[in-house]
Design goal:
The protein starts with a helix and ends with a strand. Strands 2, 4, 5, 7, 8, 9, 10, 11, 24, 25 and 26 form an 11-stranded mixed β-sheet that branches. Strands 12-23-14-19-16-17 form a 6-stranded antiparallel β-sheet, with no helix packed on it. The chain has 12 helices and 37 strands. By secondary structure, the protein is an alpha+beta fold.
Length: 640
């Protein structure tokens, strides 16, 4: 075969696509109406053909005849600038036509729940949703999958055009970042969301990233040996859900009815997860019930039932009548119904809770548990509830379907299928599930970045990641912190070129691992992308520590800043957040003073082991920024 023929012929794809076998020529789910292809990079098209020996592919008036080998085909078209719309036609014994294709910038949004977090749950969500009508921002969500071997197949519902309806449940950070970039550069933006809440880093990494790491290599081999040939994650979940429903005796015995005798049920305090109140490590179905007495009931008036948050899903009843149901552990439940559901005297509220792992039951704010009707005072529902376990002979889902059980399990079916698809950058928000292993995480994150660049065949692929936000109650005295260690592990990845870290140390919430301020994260992420992708000359992160000097006046820390220097927020001239680790290992808070535009003085003259800044799960108020609004990031300086 000549070089010319090789250039224009399809290349062998050696990994089974697993696509729809009822069609003769098929494309991956990524190839659909409204898709966005990466501008200024070669355009790769691939698929499967069941019977054909060749496939004709036409894009933008260019046509290639692709040879089919072992049922797979692949071809490449020349790079194109931003614009569109274009059409793609793939023809064998059947013809596939894809329309409204735009050339623009494609970003993959990976990680766990803070990347997954939807726009409808951010601060000022109503206003944000009204500003979502951007026809040239397109979105694709990768369906969750677990597989023991790499595949080029993935599931998804196709590309959606950004509007209030389609964006509401899409990644807030992804969309808000895209909106800023689109408004700035007027280039079409494609977003691919493949985040999965609660996941660790090792499942997002390919096998090659674990070379010479025996413990991980052993786990990968165990995964292959035990998972081989099992159903898709979607089918496994469906089968498990059916078996789980059948395990709930409460549903079949009518536990939602007030007439059912609940006198033998145990007591629990709400809000509060049942694992901490006598039901450790319990999943499945639980039923919770509370009786309240109403002296009078207004006639035919609207009412609201507030049940705070429920982990994971619920069916909620008032006197045996279903008034609402919600899926999702972090959704606040408020159900509307009419007062004819109530009666004077004793009323019963019953909630059927489905928990598929981790904590289960009521959680959130006490004030969010209430019953109120028009012309009636609000009644709190916090406090004692009765509880009983509904699941009998609880089914088990194979460990190989545990999203956090094995390395590579999510990469194989959720990241690898994207790698032939050129992108502008990879955006990543993850680490909350790995705070217990910061040192290992430091190695894994850097190996992951390198492996992604290899997989996309792009040594300069920008990788932008979010550092963990402040979280949990503040400690009154300095203590060691897993979250601070993890942030340091994330910072270490900046030694790799074409990386950027987005600080979130000042936008977190003490009582919620999911900060609602995704807007600040998006602004900072967009700044990083303006530098790495759009080659803008601008400040896109906080001032790094440059040097440390100690003399008889104290310890001076200098920072690398622009001419504008450091700024200190607030009226307090003392800068909090600094901790000295003495030679004896004691941790002491030492306030700082802004000494110059680029230096902070600590009044400590003795030798020390380390200086720490914002080194805590939640360090509290952040005071030191540059003029561009980026905070000095947490750090630990170790004395020589």
């Amino acid at each position: 075969m000549s070089q010319h023929t090789l250039k224009f012929s399809c290349l062998l794809i050696v990994i089974f696509l697993g696509l729809d076998l009822n069609a003769r020529v098929v494309l991956p789910a990524l190839f659909a109406d409204h898709m966005v292809l990466q501008r200024d990079k070669p355009i790769v098209v691939w698929g499967e053909a069941i019977y054909e020996t060749e496939v004709t592919v036409t894009f933008n008036d260019l046509t290639e005849i692709c040879l089919v080998e072992n049922g797979r085909w692949k071809t490449t078209f020349p790079a194109m600038p931003a614009g569109g719309p274009h059409k793609l036609t793939v023809k064998g014994s059947n013809t596939i036509l894809i329309e409204d294709i735009l050339m623009g910038d494609v970003f993959v949004c990976g990680g766990q729940s803070n990347m997954e977090w939807p726009l409808r749950n951010v601060n000022n969500a109503e206003a944000e949703l009204k500003n979502t009508n951007f026809p040239n921002i397109r979105m694709f969500t990768v369906e969750q999958e677990i597989t023991d071997r790499k595949t080029l197949s993935l599931e998804g519902a196709g590309w959606a055009i950004a509007n209030e309806k389609t964006v509401a449940d899409f990644s807030a950070i992804g969309f808000l970042t895209a909106r800023l970039l689109h408004q700035e550069y007027e280039v079409p933006i494609g977003l691919i969301d493949n985040a999965w809440g609660g996941t660790n880093i090792m499942g997002w990494m390919p096998e090659e990233a674990f070379a010479n790491q025996q413990s991980f290599e052993k786990m990968i081999q165990t995964f292959k040996d035990t998972h081989n040939g099992e159903s898709s994650f979607r089918q496994a979940k469906l089968d498990y859900a059916e078996q789980l429903e059948l395990s709930d005796v409460g549903l079949f015995q009518g536990w939602s009815e007030p007439e059912f005798d609940k006198s033998a049920w145990k007591k629990i305090n709400a809000p509060g997860l049942w694992e901490t109140q006598g039901f450790p490590d319990k999943d499945g179905f639980f039923w919770l019930s509370k009786k309240i007495e109403l002296k009078t009931v207004p006639e035919d008036k609207p009412c609201k039932l507030g049940l705070a948050k429920i982990d994971d899903d619920d069916l909620s009843f008032v006197n045996g009548l279903l008034v609402g149901s919600t899926q999702g552990y972090n959704e606040t439940r408020i159900y509307d119904f009419f007062s004819d559901h109530l009666t004077e005297g004793i009323n019963e509220i019953t909630v059927r809770v489905k928990d598929t792992g981790g904590g289960g039951g009521f959680h959130g704010l006490t004030s969010d548990m209430f019953l109120v009707c028009e012309s009636m005072d609000t009644m709190t529902l916090a406090g004692n509830w009765s509880i009983a376990e509904g699941s009998v002979n609880l089914p088990t889902l194979s460990k190989t379907y545990d999203a956090n059980a094995f390395p590579t399990n999510r990469y194989n079916g959720m990241v690898h299928p994207l790698t032939p698809y050129p992108i502008a950058a990879y955006l990543y928000y993850q680490g909350e599930s790995d705070t217990w292993q910061a040192k290992t995480y430091e190695t894994l994150l850097q190996n992951m970045i390198r492996s992604y660049r290899t997989a996309w065949n792009d040594n300069q692929l920008p990788f932008v990641f979010v550092q963990l936000a402040n979280f949990m109650a503040q400690d009154e005295t300095p203590v060691e912190s897993d979250w601070a260690n993890l942030r340091q592990a994330q910072t270490a990845a900046l030694k790799l070129p074409y990386t950027a870290m987005v600080s979130a140390i000042d936008i977190g919430e003490a009582d919620d691992i999911h900060p609602r301020d995704k807007q600040t994260v998006a602004v900072r992420m967009a700044a990083s992308l303006k530098r790495l992708v759009y080659n803008e000359s601008l400040i896109f992160d906080g001032p790094p520590l440059e040097k440390v000097f100690t003399n008889s006046f104290g310890t001076l820390l200098t920072f690398r800043t622009s001419e504008k220097g450091l700024t200190v927020k607030g009226n307090d001239k003392k800068i909090n957040g600094f901790v000295i680790e003495t030679l004896e290992g004691k941790l002491i808070k030492i306030p700082g003073i802004l000494q110059s535009k680029s230096a902070i003085l600590l009044e400590y003259t003795k030798p020390f082991k380390s200086i720490r800044y914002l080194w805590a799960n939640n360090p509290g108020d952040v005071q030191v920024y540059n003029e561009e609004g980026f905070p000095v990031n947490p750090f630990k300086y170790v004395s020589n």
